[in-house]
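name: query_chain
kind: protein
chains: 1
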Amino acid sequence: MSLSLLLSPMHWPLWLSLLIGNLLSSFTMTVVTMPFYVNRLLKRWLHPDPDELNVWMYWRGLAIVIGGLSLSLARYQHRKGPRQPGRVQWRSR
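structure:
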């Protein structure tokens, strides 16, 4: 979004400014963060030792992903949508 604001002096339509901003920010984050931060954190999964290649590592990764998705689902499942102002809510008797 910040790049879209920086591109506003170009006087492009909003949709084009958002598209170019998203493309530039995705490219920048991939070039900057992937080699220096993400690759270090995921080194074990990206470049595993040949001796450690076994089925349990894949099952462990799958369990981590499913667990994270389940926690996210449990966290946001109870939330209701935002109340709309000015809308009358009727009670049934």
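note: Residues 14-41 form the longest helix (28 residues).
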